[in-house]
Design a protein that fits this description.
By secondary structure, the chain is of the alpha/beta class. The chain contains 37 helices and 30 strands.
Length: about 1000
């Protein structure tokens, strides 16, 4: 029986300072070694600076159009999107928009390279013909339309293709092989360009592309032995549409066999087969997939299997140790490509969004360089089992590796096609026996776009060696500074301007603590805690801290009607009146409680929520039917509400001194209104409930809270926690019940305000009830729903659109106020995008949300399901069906996608996993905006476009509460994206925003004549 394979275990995001202390201690070399490294690197830099390539390369483009300039940024966006725009009108608008953002007309061309001259000439000519504001609608534009627009488009597209040709070896594997073929020439590793798979069809297409490429490469590979043979790089995310940690079981069952098939084909031809690196959250899953495939007995005797390791990941050295242990356990050899990493900005943002304890990558480039050299030294020491492949364009890195290697055998260097040519030409001249491989992208110009921009960002940044090496103004000594000297001491390991994720909102408040599901240890611990929390919860009216008795009804789970979550005693109208009377009696003492003390209580509540997150996640899943991701996010949102309103309350309720004449003080202060009724929905039974209640409390009000009829247990637990945190029992009261209890509360003459989240119809009824009462006019703070739309034009990236549409529509089973209901797609690109969206939606798993692999759980109850099924039945008769999923029995509704002839067919909000799509011609965007306006709703809007003028025009035109550009349109973050709508979608102010608390308060101005007691002593005592 074979021994089990080694398991990868390493801290996900260790402390930079501790890592720096170890890396710095190991980085020192002898004076003789440093001298040799300096000499070798200086010679390579000299070759780069002496290079006079008449054609020109990528480095020339990066120097000519630096990303620190407007021209460079405009060029980047043009490169990213122009070639995928099929229609002339949108292309013209896009070119005008981008060229108007840089001074291409007066750009002084510094390079003699043909590539640069041709591109700069084309862009300059285009900018001259189409000046900003002179589109085909204008006077000059009419001339342009007749004479210049086709030439402009042709010239600008050709400039993009010219750039692309220097990044991409060939548009097909056959053309790439023909271009690469030269007997005795450099080694190649071919990368078949493309984004990750969104659908099963995508994964199949990428698999076929890889398989065909392996066969073509193998047939032309010659007879040299490994490692001196060509290779191919494959992306695991291209081979499976749900390559993510929570879908591990499915990934292992479906992806591993595919990878083994490709590896076997590569083995037949003795090729280098490299699994490319993915983002940090996929590392553990990637290594598990690699180990499962690599250990397949059919691959024994082949040394070509390999993987890429990213030095900017803090776990890079641990990955090398793991791979070495794997090779040792199987008595096999493996190839290892060491790269610095190309997703740094994404990794930083993701860690901040998830509020991890630390970053999985280094925040300073010098730390990445330090890590790279430590990894290189480790790999060189393991050459008996691992074949190192050092991917770099940095002369100092190359020289250091050569010094550490002590010769030219047992490893190779790698460079990107189109880059590093002068450096490696010099290196080949100096060391003819040294091997290097060219990493060569293969694919259509349309597919190269995301790759191209990533390379521009990575290598065009001001701190990049590529950006500095050819600049004669940068001293060679600067380029030779060692990473260890730049860091200096462990205290300098972190970037001073990049706070830890938990400190992102400091000094105002701490970020709610998150977790990375891609870290196996953290996920396993969380799941164990959730599974252990199975106790039944009881809820009942809670007035003045006393639980009222009555007939209890069972609370069953939407997951399964036979699953009991607990029980609830619903309130009577009399108890609702008692709660208001008790709250009114307690109001004055709470209103006089210092704001700092109220804030401290909310801070304590936030801490308790974090400590008990597993309990609330378990309850949100059982009572609310939420997936793990949704439940965890909701607990975080509740924590953020507590901390944000505490921080805002400290500022707002401390009093503001107003200007005025001498001898007088004027102070504006906020005070609580009285008794607030808080009526919350079932779709966010913890976050919205907590947000309403804590805002009212921080403002100095007493609160009577009525949770949704479907989710009273979560509310009861939240009230208990707030009482434990220090909110007096006389101030916060719970009255569970149905619509009649809500009506009784709203009609009571002693309430001072209502905060409500729910349907527009109920909000109207509350508004009428408040208006009909005698006595003070009290505020209604209402957040309702909407027919939320997204507009997608031809410049949008299809893969990004698919991700954002699927997330916005189907996450939480579509049961979010902010969810996407109506998608407008420019008809020139609608077919491909609808196909991609439908394919991605088919991959969503529907079922029990307690299973971590589930993406869509149940709708809240039978009534909700009936309403959705009735709408779906109508749509099947009235529209074109693109997707009609099949749901299991119970409260489950499968994803559906319908194409409408006209947006007017959708007359009301459909609260579930149903998407409605409308195509629009490029010249009819105004009609799209009119149809959105006519709906009367104004909650959320999505825009996917690369044309700034279009984005700005839409934002200016529509009165929408939350607009999201080139991202999904759900998941508003407290204090970052204050949430709330306009028109039929709510009253404002926005929850989680700086104006919210003030609506819960009254204002009072206190003016004191400070000179009334015999003169203005302060003025008289002032010196001159």
């Amino acid at each position: 029986m074979s021994s089990p394979l080694p398991r990868f275990e390493a801290a996900y995001a260790p402390d930079d300072g501790r890592m720096a202390a170890r890396l710095l201690a190991a980085a020192a070399l002898s004076r003789e070694q440093d001298t040799r490294i300096d000499d070798a690197a200086t010679r390579l830099i000299g070759a780069i600076r002496a290079n006079d390539d008449r054609l020109g390369g990528v480095e020339d483009m990066l120097r000519e159009f630096a990303l620190s300039t407007r021209e460079g940024l405009a060029l980047m966006v043009l490169a990213e999107a122009l070639l995928r725009v099929p229609d002339a009108r949108t292309a013209d608008q896009f070119i005008e928009d981008r060229l108007g953002q840089g001074d291409f007309v007066h750009h002084e061309i510094r390079s003699s390279a043909f590539l640069v001259n041709a591109s700069a000439w084309a862009l300059g000519m285009s900018a001259r013909v189409i000046q900003p504001g002179e589109t085909p609608q204008g006077t000059i534009g009419r001339l342009t339309k007749r004479l210049g627009a086709p030439a402009v488009r042709a010239a600008t597209r050709q400039a993009m293709r010219l750039m692309g040709s220097h990044f991409v070896l060939g548009e097909t594997i056959e053309s790439a092989l023909a271009r690469a073929h030269s007997p005795g020439g450099p080694r190649y590793s071919f990368d078949m360009l493309g984004e990750g798979a969104r659908s099963a069809a995508d994964a199949e297409r990428y698999f076929d592309s890889y398989a065909s490429a392996i066969e073509a490469i193998g047939l032309s590979a010659g007879d040299r032995p490994l490692p001196d043979r060509p290779g191919i790089s494959v992306k695991l995310s291209a081979l499976h549409p749900r390559f993510e940690a929570l879908s591990r079981t499915r990934v292992m069952a479906e992806l591993v066999p595919r990878l083994i098939v490709l590896a076997r084909r590569a083995k037949v031809h003795e090729l280098n087969f490299t699994v490319d690196a993915e983002e940090a959250d996929r590392l553990e899953l990637s290594l598990e997939v690699i180990a499962a495939a690599f250990s397949d007995t059919s691959l024994h005797g082949w040394d070509g299997f390999g993987l890429a390791i990213q030095a900017y990941q803090k776990r890079a050295e641990a990955v090398i140790d793991h791979v070495d242990a794997l090779a040792r356990a199987l008595n096999r050899r493996m190839m290892v490509r060491l790269v610095k990493g190309a997703y740094w900005d994404t990794e930083i943002k993701r860690a901040q969004e998830r509020s991890l304890d630390d970053y999985p990558v280094f925040t300073r480039k010098a730390m990445t360089d330090l890590s790279y050299m430590a990894c290189a030294e480790k790999l060189l020491a393991l050459r008996s089992r691992l074949f190192p492949q050092f991917a770099t364009h940095n002369a100092l890195t190359v020289a250091t590796v050569l010094e550490l290697a002590g010769g030219s055998a047992g490893f190779e260097f790698q460079r990107l096609h189109g880059m590093g040519e002068a450096l490696y030409a010099q290196l080949s001249e100096d060391r003819p026996r040294l091997a290097y491989r060219t990493y060569a992208p293969v694919g259509s110009h349309r597919d190269l776009l995301a790759y191209l921009v990533r390379r521009l960002l990575e290598n065009g940044a001001n701190s990049s060696f590529v950006a500095l090496a050819a600049d004669d103004a940068v001293p060679v000594a600067t380029l030779l500074r060692r990473p260890a000297d730049i860091i200096g001491s462990p205290e300098n390991a972190r970037h001073p301007k990049i706070p830890l994720p938990r400190d992102l909102y400091q000094p105002q408040r701490q970020n709610s603590r998150g977790i990375e599901f891609g870290e196996r240890a953290a996920l396993t611990g969380l799941l164990a805690s959730i599974a252990a929390d199975t106790r039944s919860i009881a809820a009942a009216p809670l007035i003045d801290g006393r639980t009222k008795t009555g007939t209890a009804r069972p609370v069953v789970s939407p997951i399964d009607p036979t699953l009991s979550v607990g029980s609830v005693v619903d309130s009577t109208p009399e108890q609702a009146r008692d709660a208001i009377a008790a709250a009114r009696a307690g109001f004055m003492s709470w209103s006089r409680t210092p704001p700092e003390q109220r804030a401290q209580i909310l801070q304590h509540a936030a801490n308790l929520l974090e400590q008990r997150h597993a309990h609330f996640i378990a309850l949100l899943q059982r009572e609310g039917g939420k997936t793990l991701d949704d439940a965890f996010s909701e607990v975080r949102e509740a924590v953020d509400f507590c901390r944000y309103y505490a921080a805002e309350g400290r500022k707002l309720f401390s009093g503001e001194t107003m200007p005025g004449p001498t001898g007088e003080s004027n102070v504006l202060q906020l005070r609580g209104r009285g008794v607030f009724v808080a009526i919350s929905p079932w779709n966010f039974p913890l976050a919205i409930f907590s947000g309403q209640v804590t805002a009212a409390l921080m403002a100095g009000n007493a609160v009577v809270a009525k949770p949704a009829e479907q989710t009273p247990l979560i509310a009861a637990e939240a009230v208990r926690l707030l009482h434990e945190a220090g909110v007096p029992a006389s101030i916060l009261h719970l009255v569970p019940g149905g619509a009649s209890i809500g009506a009784a509360l709203v009609a009571h003459p002693d309430i001072a305000g209502v905060v409500f989240t729910g349907s527009t119809e109920v909000a109207r009824a509350i508004n009428r009830a408040l208006a009909a009462k005698e006595g003070p006019i009290v505020p209604l703070i209402a957040e309702t729903g909407g027919i939320n739309a997204m507009i997608v034009d031809a410049t949008a990236l299809p893969e990004q659109v698919a991700d954002d549409v699927v997330t916005s529509t189907f996450r939480s089973a579509g049961q979010r106020c902010s969810a996407l209901r109506l998608l407008f797609i420019q008809d020139d690109v609608a077919g491909r995008m609808i196909e991609m969206i439908s394919g991605a939606a088919r991959e969503l798993r529907l079922g029990d949300p307690r299973d971590i692999a589930t993406q869509i759980g149940p709708v809240i109850d039978v009534e909700a399901k009936r309403r959705l099924e009735a709408h779906i039945a109508r749509m099947k008769n009235e529209s074109r069906v693109h997707l009609a999923g099949v749901a299991p029995s119970g409260n489950y509704v499968a994803p559906h996608i319908f194409e409408l002839a006209d947006a007017g067919q959708l007359t009301e909000e459909v609260f579930g996993p149903v998407l409605h799509v409308v195509r629009y011609p490029a010249d009819r965007l105004d009609r799209v905006l009119q149809s959105i306006e006519r709906s009367g709703y104004g909650l959320t809007l999505g825009i996917h476009s690369r044309i700034d003028d279009t984005i700005e025009a839409v934002i200016e035109r529509l009165s929408i509460g939350n607009i999201y550009v080139n991202r999904n349109m759900i998941g508003a973050v407290v204090g970052v994206q204050p949430f709330g709508g306009q028109g039929l979608s709510g009253t404002g102010p926005k929850a989680g925003g700086p104006h919210y608390l003030a609506r819960f308060a009254t204002e009072q101005t206190v003016t004191v004549n400070t000179s009334a007691a015999g003169g203005n002593a302060a003025l008289l005592s002032d010196g001159e």
